[in-house]
Amino acid sequence: MHPIEKELRKYATPQRAAVNARFFKSGKGEYGEGDQFLGVTVPDSRIVARKFLDTSFPQLESALENKWHEVRLTALLILVERYKSKKASTEERQAIVDFYLNHLHAVNNWDLVDLSADKILGEYLLAHPQQKKKLHALARSPKLWEKRVGIISTFAFIRNHQFDDTKAIALTLMHDEHDLMHKAVGWMLREMGKRNEKELVDFLKTHYTKMPRTMLRYAIEKFPEGIRKKYLAGEI
Question: CB of 107 within 8 A of CB of 149?
């Protein structure tokens, strides 16, 4: 048994495992089909992650190949903590990013993406903008979770009032078939609007009639009710 799994089991409950299995759609034909859960909350996973910050890359690789969702999550939380550490050198951060990109197959549910992508890859590309083509390549991937990494990573740019990549990837994913992508893109557009409403309004002016309903709803969630209704009715 992996040491991280052994520690996580101290916090696990069958009730939470059942809730997580339903919440993350692990049933047959669902987007998380086959995912398995110990039954550990995210706050408890963070507690365990802090105990294993010195875990070697081979051990982290083993954790990311683990069948249990929370073991993979904890490995990702360790990478996030190590990446953002003030003690991390440029070489260490580069190694973490390379490791992350080489193990994206293990970042295979929306929470795993959302709790790691912007904090590792997004922050790295914020400091290395000449490599942003990696992000746009992910957004064009046929794989659901890689596409989500592409858009969620731009949250790091949004926090720094840089919006061009978010808008470009939103257009790339505008007609994606999966509702999870509509939610992710709408969420990032909403976050952009919270920092610069004009940027969002200008984007919507050109594109809102072509946006999937879910994407639009998420994007305009913070607008006054009357304006939201006009957007949804196509009356703007």
Answer: yes
Is the pTM value of this prediction over 0.70? yes
Q: Where are the beta strands (DSSP E) in the chain?
A: none
Contact 220, 231 (CB under 8 A): yes
Can you tell me the distance from the alpha carbon of 174 to that of 193, in angstroms, rounded to the nearest whole number? 17
Rg of the chain (C-alpha set)? 19
According to DSSP, the residues that pair with 36 across neighbouring strands are 68
**For helices 69-84 and 90-102, what crossing angle results, to 10°?**
160
Quickly count: other Cβ atoms within 10 Å of residue 2's Cβ: 17
Q: Is residue 113 within 8 Å of residue 152, measured between CB atoms? A: yes
Are 236 and 230 spatial neighbours (Cβ–Cβ below 8 Å)?
yes
Distances (CA, A) of 49 to 5, 123, 231: 11, 20, 43
CA distance 168 to 133: 12
Tokens 């953002």 -> residue? 84
User: What is the CB neighbour count within 10 angstroms for residue 53?
Assistant: 12
pLDDT tens digits for range 188-229: 999 999 999 999 999 999 999 999 999 999 999 999 999 999
Taking the CA atoms of residue 182, residue 169, residue 158 and residue 164 in that order, the dihedral angle to the nearest 10 degrees is -140
Find all residues with CB under 8 Å of 86, minimum gap 6, and list them: none
Report the C-alpha gap between 225 and 229 in whole angstroms.
6
The span from the CA of 190 to the CA of 221, in Å, is 7
* Rounded Cα gap, residues 131 and 204, in angstroms: 28
